[in-house]
Amino acid sequence: MKIKRQKQAKKNISFYKYNFSFREPFQILVDGTFCQAALKNKIQIKEQMPKYLMGEVQLCTTKLVLNCEQMLYGAKLILQRYQVRKCAHFKDPIPASECLLSMLGKTNPHHYFIATQDHTLTTSLKEIPGVPLFYIILNTIVLDKPSEASLDYVQKVQLGELVSPTQQESIRSLKEEQGLGPRDTERRPRKRKRKGPNPLSCLKKKKKAEPTPPKKTEDGQKKKRSRHKRRKSSGVVTAPAAPHQ
């Protein structure tokens, strides 16, 4: 039975890896009901989960689940050993099941596994495609088979009606290689470099040459400029002297 269970788990994990881009380390959100069942059945979650999934795991919970008053003290001690994910309900408490649902959203973008014994929560989670579920039965951790919502999603992707997360990543990487990013409205505005001052404007202005004042005589009067008049030649023409006989 153990070998058969591991083969089925391997098949289910491959389904989520191929169709929903799940990768190691697998993130597993654990609630108080799962820890109480593990404590009752003497199951070491931290030791058995990596063996069952045949890979590295990260066990985590939320602040609200960790501080749930209805949880037994032993289960709370187990949860305190796990990583704590931030949620928006610590100041305004809501039921733990609603907190885990809010962590997944509509598409489970962070690829969480959910470990819970809450049947109401399990019913709601099966309506979200791509959510692997763990539960404890007969002193054993079991990974549930893919839900109908997950199978319908994969079928629509294969028919070309939807785009899978793997295809979205491939399209995004191809766009980056071709230099096609998001729209200009989504891009960050480029900061313009501050230009320095114009070097020509930093030059000192040349002073205009002042006209030289006229020279003054010793008496303080301006020296008059003397003009030389040309002598006009007289219009009388003298006759040449007669030669001597």
TrEMBL record:
Compartments where located: Nucleus, Nucleolus
Highest taxon above the source species: Eukaryota
InterPro entries, alphabetized: Fcf1/UTP23, PIN-like_dom_sf, UTP23_sensor
Keywords: Nucleus, Ribosome biogenesis, rRNA processing
Domain UTP23 sensor motif region: 190-207
Transmembrane portions of the chain: none
GO cellular component: small-subunit processome
Composition skew (Basic and acidic residues), residue ranges: 172-187, 209-221
Principal location: nucleus
Chain positions covered by the region annotation Disordered: 165-245
Record's compositionally biased regions (Basic residues): 222-233
GO terms, biological process: rRNA processing
Keyword rRNA processing: yes
Protein family membership: Belongs to the UTP23/FCF1 family. UTP23 subfamily.
Function (record text): Involved in rRNA-processing and ribosome biogenesis.
Protein name: rRNA-processing protein UTP23 homolog
Organism expressing this protein natively: Periophthalmus magnuspinnatus
Phylogenetic classification of the source organism: Eukaryota, Metazoa, Chordata, Craniata, Vertebrata
